[in-house]
Specification:
By secondary structure, the chain is an alpha+beta fold. The protein has six helices and five strands. It has helices at residues 19-29, 49-57, 60-64, 75-86, 108-117, 137-145, and strands spanning 33-37, 43-48, 101-102, 122-127, 130-136. It is globular, with a radius of gyration of 18 Å.
Length: 151
């Protein structure tokens, strides 16, 4: 089985994308992030939900004290206000280094091995510099679950 069979198609992020659009596209495609492309369409980074939320809504002290935070912590109301202001901002300030990728004719086993080696749950599918989609651990499991037993 090659990665094309488990690939999820999605948009790419670019300089014109807002945080709201990122959230909507990641939710639609069930992805943790998107590749970020420059004006020529080259992948130059990635934007992830985790990084956007961490950098914009999660004070460092809360991370350090996560194990002692109560169940009814009041910062959630502040987070809602933060999110409302965040949604129409561009994603560009949240761009990280490019993510792990492989070509569309690669095997699912290679994708799984690369994800495990890099301790990630997704990998980009890129042919000749063009983004085709993303393979996640969930999309691999779903594809494998649909395979009929060999007799």
């Amino acid at each position: 089985m090659n990665v094309k069979q488990a690939m999820i198609s999605s948009r790419v992020a670019d300089n014109g994308m807002t945080v709201r659009e990122l959230f909507e596209e990641c939710a639609r495609a069930n992805l943790p992030g998107l590749p970020f492309c420059d004006d020529q369409g080259r992948i130059v980074g990635r934007v992830t939900l985790k990084n956007v939320l961490k950098r914009s809504c999660l004070p460092e002290y809360m991370v350090e004290l996560a194990h002692v935070l109560g169940e009814r912590f009041s910062h959630m109301e502040d987070m809602t206000v933060d999110i409302i202001h965040l949604l129409d901002k561009p994603v560009a300030p949240y761009v990280q280094e490019p993510h792990l990728s492989l070509e569309s004719d690669s095997t699912a086993v290679k994708a799984l091995a690369m994800m495990e080696q890099s301790d990630t749950s997704y990998i980009l599918v890129v042919d000749q510099g063009h983004y085709l989609g993303t393979v996640t651990i969930h999309s691999l499991a779903s594809t494998l679950a649909a395979v009929e037993e060999l007799k």
